[in-house]
Amino acid sequence: MPITAEEQRFLDAVTLDAPWDLVTTFAGMHRWRPEDVNQAADIIVEKLRRHGIPVAVHTPDICLSVPLDAAVTAGGVRYRAKPPSSALSVPGGRTAPLVKLSANPKALRSYSRDIATLFGGSITSVEEAKRMVGGKIVIMQGFGNPALTSLIEEWGGVGLIAVNPGIDIHWGTCTTIWGSPDLHDLPRKPKIPVVAVNNPDGLKLMALAEAGGEATIMTEMLEGWFPQSIPVVSIPGTEEPDRFVLLHGHYDSWEVGVGDNATGDATMLEIARVLWAKRGELKRSVRIAWWPGHSTGRYAGSTWFTDAFAQDLDENCLAQINCDSPGCRWATSYHQTRAFSESAALATQAIRDVVPDADIRTMRPPQAGDYSFNNIGLPSFFMLSSTMPEALRKEKGYYDVSGCGANIAWHTENDTLEIADQDVLMTDMKIYLLSVLRIANAEALPFDWSATCDEFDATIAGYEKASQGAADLAPARAAVAGLRAALAGLEAAPLPARNAAVQDLSRILVPINYTREARFAHDPAFTVPPLPGLAVAAELPTLEAALQKPAQVELMRGQNRFVAALRAATRRVQQATGA
């Protein structure tokens, strides 16, 4: 759809003055220790108020794990290292024999806990892994991510050294706990020290491991509950002020974090400025939130907000839009755009209307970012923003990273002002603004649940094929067909009834597709397969005989959950259409 005259007035109001001022300010300050993070929040608040924008500041206590120091000592040499947040703090060091594991090169950033995915056949069973790893410090290529850390710990490993792909060492996290822990989460806090080293040092350590050497890992962490500021701007709509779109991103960063995420903070500042100035033209409300605790709290800021305002989000939030790493150098492609199926057309069209010749592809968001709203069931899109064209990334010899527009300065001390690009930032700000407007000002909410049915059908077919005849998913297929048939009449329903049904469908269908835990809880921070209740069907041919019956029980229960949800969704649509 072409940009309307009304939308163009909003886009024409976007300038670089306020956002670039924030980018350059944040380029001069670290934002990862608790006191620095709060200082950064004060700057955001001051800049908002300078433009006359009211802002609420929440100050919850959230659980953080802040790296202070780390090193690996082996063969009489001390190697520089960085500990990911939530690694076990061992200031006195832990010494053990080294064992090298061979990683699947295609899974260096994977959050999967699947052995075949992570190790590509070099390890074939849990029993083999335990024999290899027990009592040893594991060293392997990749990043010390949550899924891998939890597996090494389960297998009896006493430490993990992640060998990063390049000359720099990347900051990260290693806990599967999403946000601040509750009593159920606490046992999953990592119980082993984890560090990352650069590739040249890692090659030396891997050679030492192959020679039967040992190493000492030292980590020192600052951990506890800290008051952290969460600025939130609420811009009221004129027709449905209770209903709102949530635009959000993190303002804490590793080092000065220009591309991840000062540019995102600046984007949200500018959108707040434009929307506040033109608030009389908004039909529905927009809330914009800046999160702490993304880097050192595993999304603790957004998780606190989700928990504290769960009922309001459940009743009134139309969608969440995540703003991370826009406006980065050379990032002119959109071929890695994250979006739920029901939101993909909206995201794609907004990009296409701002950048007509863009390379756009949407994909399922991973269990990452500040997607702390899946268990409530919000339609969602964007996570990382524009990125480098794949050909250019390969030409530069850059390995794959999770932000900064594919610049390998991501999560390093090199993510400085040169990573930001004013022209790309201007483009991305307009894309985000247009996306927000097309929900806030839409007559009919622009979420396509038929596309979600398409995804469900494809997922079910894939699981049936992988099961090699061992799984009967006919009830699931029939449930999708029933919902699809009901949706055919939704467009003709009265607009208020149609919009209410579209919103209610998200509360049913998003959790069934993205979560295992109950609504208002939070799933662990590792990969959730599509329709997780049915995913065991694909494993049936590879499970040993003793696990076949329990797996069939799990599948039966998962299919019951799915069918019940789809039937509830169908009834909700029929209620709206009078069928």
From TrEMBL:
Q: Which ranges carry the Peptidase M28 domain?
A: 232-425
Would you tell me the protein name for this molecule?
Zn-dependent exopeptidase M28
What the entry lists under InterPro entries is as follows: Peptidase_M28 (IPR007484), Peptidase_M28B (IPR039373)
> Its domain of life?
Bacteria
Pfam families reported for this sequence: Peptidase_M28
What is the native source organism of this protein? Falsiroseomonas selenitidurans
